[in-house]
Design goal:
- The complex is a heterodimer of chains A (about 425) and B (about 300).
- By secondary structure, chain A is an alpha/beta fold.
- Chain A has 2 domains: about 5-240, Rossmann fold (3-Layer(aba) Sandwich), CATH 3.40.50.300; about 255-395, Coagulation Factor XIII, Chain A, domain 1.
- Chain A has 9 helices and 16 strands.
- In chain A, a hairpin with a 5-residue loop joins strand 12 and strand 13.
- Chain A starts with a strand and ends in a 27-residue tail after the last strand.
- The two termini of chain B are about 40 Å apart.
- Chain B is mainly alpha-helical and about 300 residues long.
- Chain B has one domain.
- The radius of gyration of chain B is 21 Å and the shape is globular.
- The chains are: A alpha/beta (about 425), B mainly alpha (about 300).
- The interface of A and B includes residues 25, 71, 77, 97 and 110 of A.
- Strand 4 (about 80-85) of chain A pairs antiparallel with strand 1 (about 10-15) of chain B.
Chain lengths: ~425, ~300
C-alpha cells in the first residue's frame, strides 16, 4: 500500500529581511536593495510515513520541525521537492485551527469543517460530538474572539479529530490545555491509532514520543538527522541538544553546566575556586560495556566505571576522593566519597589512579553529568574540584518513562477477601 | 478501512500547473458557498441595520447623484433614476466585489496561516458576497420597474445574464490578481480606491454613453477600451431601453433629429453582443493571468502575513 505521507527531498527557504517593506513608498525607496539573508529552515528532508503509523517529529526550537509540518499540511509550499499526502488531512498547528474571531463557535465549526472538505450535512452529523468533546456547550454561540486560549485549542482539537481525517498533523497542541483535556486528547489519539489512521506530530516532549510513537524523526537545523525507533531517536535528540559534545566522557566547555539550580552551580564554582591543586585530576575516562564496541551510550542497569588519574605534587596523607552524578538540569542525583563509603585512602604521592565502579546504573534516558572532587577528609581543604565536567548518556529502549528505572514485575491475582466473623 | 472512499491525494510542491489549480478549485465548490456565507455574516456582525446596509448604501448614492445631476445640473436624460439605477447596479457589483476581493487574503490571515485550501477561494468568496448584494439590489430595481410600469427592451433581456457572467469573470480576474499583490504591497487597497473612483467616471453610469462615445478622438478610444462599459451598456439598453431623449419608444431613431440627444449608442443587438463578447474574452485572458500570478505569489503568503 502506498505510504500516507511522502516527503521527497523537501527544502524550504525563508528570506530574512532586516526590514519588511509593505508600502509602495518604502518599496520604491529601497527598491532592489532590501537587505536579506537566505535561511534554509528545512533542508533536503526525505521520509515516508506508512499508513496507520504514528510518527513523532522531534527537534529543539528552530530546528524546522514546525515549518516541515506546515509544508506537509499544505500551508507553506516547499521551495524544492514535493510532498504527497493520501487521504483527508486535518492539521492542528500551534494555537487554534484557523478560526475567524468575529464568528461564533458554532459558525466556526461549520466553516472549519468545510475548509477540511466536509459538506454541511457531514458537519451536522458530527456537530454535537464536536461540541461535547470541546466541552464548550455554554459558549458555542459566543464569538470566538471572546474565547480563552484554552477554549480555542479545545475547539480546534475537537474539530480536527471529529472530521474523520485519514492523516492527523499535530503541532505541540497536546501541551496546552488542562490535564483532563490532555488525557482526553491522548485517548483520542490512541483510538486513531487503533483505527489505523496516520498521525504525524511535532513535539519536544521525549516521553510522549516514547509512549505513543512507532517511529520518530529528529530534525537538527533543518536536516533530518535520525529516522529510527523512538528510543534511538530520543537519544540523538538529546545529543543534538548538546552541540559540540561527543556525548561521552568529553569535558564540557567551561560554563556549559550553567542553568542548573543556582545553589549547585555556584557551590561548585566556589569549591573549584578554593582548589589548591596540591593533588590534581589529570585524566578521566568513563567506561561501560558498550564503549569498547563504540556505542556511545549505556542501557539502563548496565555498569559504569569512572577511572580518575591524579597527580600529587607532594606526598599527602589526608585525601578523600568524591564523585557526584547530576541530571542535565543540574539536579543532584547521587553523590558519595571515600569517607562515606568507609574506604581507607592510602597516602598519595606522584601519579596515581582511583577507580569508581558502579555495578548498576538504574537511570533512564538522558544526559548525566559527573562531578569529581579531591579534598581533605574534613572537607576543610579542597585540592581539586571539577563541577559537572564529564558526561555520559543513557538510552532507554523500553517504553517506561521518567528518570530512574525500577525493575518491575506485574502479576494478576485475586484480592484478599475480608474475612467474615 | 472498509467503506471508506479512496483517499484523496494531495501534492504540495513549489509550482502547480494552471489545470491542476483549476481542478483543485473545482473540488472546493462547497467551501466557496460556505465562505460567501461567512463573508456576509462577518460584514454585518455587530451592525444594527445589518443587511439593510447593502440596500441603503446604493440608495444613498442614488439620491446624491439624482440630486446632483438631475435636480442641480439638470440632466437631459428622462427618467434619470431608472437610467442611473441600471448602470449603478453593474458598477456596484464590480467595485464592491473588486474592493473586497483585493483585501480578502490579508483580512483572512488567521485562516490562511492555519489551514490549507485553495487561497483563490477568498477573493472569489468576496465577489460572491457582492453578488448576493447585487441580487438584492436587482430585486429592488425590479420592484421599482413594476411600480412604474416601465417598459423594458425585452429582446435585450436575454443578454443580461451573459453580461453578468462576463462582469463576474472580469471582477474575479482582477480580484484574484490584486488580492495576491496586496499581500506584498499593502498600498494596493488604497490605490484601488483611487483607481476605482477614476474608473467610475470613465464609465457611462451617470452620463450617457454618447456624451463621449459620440465624439471622435483619443478620448473615445480610451473610453471604448474600458471593459466594464459594454456590460453597463447592455444593462442600460435592456432596462432603461431608450436610446435618446426623444421619447418612450425603444426603437432606434435618427440621431440628428431636432431636440433629440443621443444617450445610448444606436447599435444593433449583434453589436451589443459583440462588445459584450470582447469583455468576456478580456476577462478570461485576465483570469488566466490572474490565477497564474496568484499561484506564483501564493507560495509565501503564510510568511508575509
Amino acid at each position: 500500500m502506498a505510504p500516507s505521507i511522502e516527503v521527497r527531498n523537501v527544502s524550504k527557504r525563508f528570506r530574512l529581511y532586516q526590514e519588511r517593506y509593505h508600502s509602495l513608498k518604502e518599496r520604491m525607496i529601497h527598491f532592489g536593495r532590501v537587505p536579506y539573508e537566505d535561511f534554509w529552515a528545512v533542508r533536503e528532508v526525505d521520509f515516508e510515513v506508512e499508513q496507520g503509523a504514528t510518527v513523532g517529529l522531534l527537534g529543539h526550537n528552530g530546528s524546522g520541525k514546525s515549518t516541515l509540518l506546515k509544508c506537509v499540511a499544505g500551508i507553506l509550499q516547499p521551495t524544492e521537492g514535493e510532498i504527497v499526502t493520501r487521504g483527508r488531512v486535518a492539521a492542528l498547528l500551534e494555537l487554534g485551527a484557523g478560526f475567524h474571531p468575529e464568528l461564533t463557535g458554532r459558525e466556526n465549526i461549520y466553516l472549519n469543517g468545510s475548509i477540511l472538505g466536509l459538506s454541511k450535512r457531514e458537519v451536522e452529523k458530527v456537530f454535537d460530538e464536536i461540541v461535547a468533546f470541546s466541552e464548550l456547550e455554554k459558549f458555542i454561540d459566543l464569538q470566538v474572539r471572546h474565547y480563552s486560549s484554552g477554549m480555542y485549542v479545545r475547539l480546534g482539537f475537537a474539530v480536527a479529530v471529529n472530521v474523520d481525517p485519514d492523516i492527523l498533523l499535530v503541532d505541540e497542541v497536546l501541551a496546552v490545555g488542562d490535564e483532563a483535556f490532555q488525557r482526553k486528547c491522548l485517548e483520542r489519539v490512541a483510538r486513531f491509532q487503533r483505527e489505523g489512521r496516520t498521525i504525524l506530530f511535532v513535539t519536544h516532549a521525549a516521553d510522549l514520543v516514547r509512549r505513543i510513537c512507532d517511529r520518530a524523526l529528529v530534525l537538527d537545523r533543518g536536516r533530518l538527522v535520525t529516522d529510527a525507533s523512538p528510543g534511538e531517536a530520543v537519544r540523538t535528540f538529546r545529543e543534538s541538544l548538546h552541540q559540540g559534545g561527543t556525548g561521552l566522557g568529553a569535558p564540557d566547555a567551561a560554563g556549559e553546566a550553567e542553568g542548573g539550580p543556582e545553589g549547585d552551580a555556584s557551590h561548585g564554582a566556589r569549591m573549584a575556586a578554593r582548589a589548591t591543586g596540591r593533588v590534581r585530576i589529570t585524566d578521566v575516562t568513563i567506561e561501560h560495556p558498550g564503549s569498547a564496541a563504540g556505542r556511545a551510550w549505556l542501557l539502563p542497569h548496565e555498569p559504569l566505571t569512572v577511572r580518575v588519574r591524579y597527580h600529587a605534587s607532594e606526598p599527602t596523607d589526608d585525601v578523600m576522593f568524591g564523585i557526584a552524578v547530576h541530571g542535565e538540569d543540574g539536579d543532584h542525583l547521587f553523590g558519595t566519597n571515600t569517607r562515606l563509603e568507609g574506604v581507607d585512602v592510602p597516602a598519595v604521592a606522584g601519579d596515581g589512579e582511583v577507580v569508581f565502579e558502579i555495578d548498576d546504573v538504574p537511570l533512564l534516558d538522558g544526559t548525566y553529568l559527573v562531578t569529581l572532587a579531591i579534598q581533605t577528609n574534613d572537607e576543610g581543604t579542597v585540592y581539586d574540584w571539577r563541577e559537572q565536567q564529564w558526561r555520559f548518556e543513557v538510552m532507554n529502549p523500553g517504553r517506561g518513562t521518567g528518570r530512574i528505572s525500577l525493575p518491575v514485575r506485574i502479576r494478576f491475582g485475586q484480592p484478599a477477601q475480608p474475612t467474615d466473623a | 478501512m472498509p467503506g471508506r472512499e479512496p483517499p484523496d491525494t494531495q501534492v504540495v510542491r513549489a509550482r502547480l500547473g494552471l489545470g491542476a489549480r483549476a481542478a483543485r478549485l473545482l473540488g472546493y465548490r462547497e467551501l466557496l458557498v460556505g465562505m460567501v456565507r461567512k463573508e456576509l455574516k462577518v460584514r454585518y456582525k455587530n451592525s444594527v441595520l445589518g443587511f439593510a446596509w447593502s440596500l441603503l448604501n446604493p440608495l444613498l448614492y442614488l439620491v446624491v447623484f439624482y440630486v446632483a445631476f438631475d435636480l442641480i445640473l439638470g440632466s437631459a436624460i428622462e427618467h434619470f433614476e431608472i437610467f442611473l439605477l441600471s448602470g449603478l447596479l453593474v458598477w456596484n457589483l464590480f467595485s464592491t466585489g473588486l474592493g473586497a476581493a483585493t483585501g480578502s487574503i490579508v483580512a483572512n490571515a488567521g485562516i490562511v496561516n492555519k489551514v490549507s485550501f485553495p487561497r483563490e477561494i477568498l477573493p472569489l468568496a468576496s465577489i460572491g458576497a457582492a453578488l448576493v448584494h447585487f441580487a438584492l439590489q436587482a430585486l429592488v430595481l425590479g420592484a421599482v420597474l413594476l411600480v412604474l410600469r416601465w417598459d423594458v427592451a425585452w429582446e435585450y433581456v436575454p443578454l443580461l445574464p451573459v453580461a453578468l457572467v462576463a462582469l463576474l469573470v472580469l471582477t474575479a480576474a482582477l480580484g484574484v490578481l490584486l488580492s495576491a499583490v496586496n499581500v506584498y504591497l499593502r498600498d494596493t487597497q488604497h490605490f484601488l480606491e483611487l483607481g476605482l473612483l477614476a474608473w467610475f467616471w470613465m464609465t457611462p453610469v451617470v452620463y450617457g454613453f454618447m456624451t463621449i462615445g459620440g465624439r471622435e478622438g483619443a478620448g473615445k478610444a480610451l473610453f471604448m477600451a474600458n471593459p466594464v462599459t459594454p456590460v453597463v451598456l447592455v444593462f442600460q439598453r435592456a432596462i432603461y431601453a431608450r436610446l435618446d431623449t426623444g421619447g418612450g419608444s425603444s426603437a432606434p431613431r435618427a440621431l440628428s433629429g431636432e431636440g433629440v440627444t443621443a444617450i445610448l449608442p444606436p447599435w444593433t443587438w449583434g453589436e451589443y453582443a459583440l462588445y459584450l463578447g470582447l469583455t468576456f474574452a478580456v476577462g478570461l485572458v485576465l483570469l488566466a493571468v490572474g490565477i497564474a500570478v496568484f499561484g506564483r505569489l501564493e507560495a509565501n503568503f503564510a510568511e508575509e502575513l
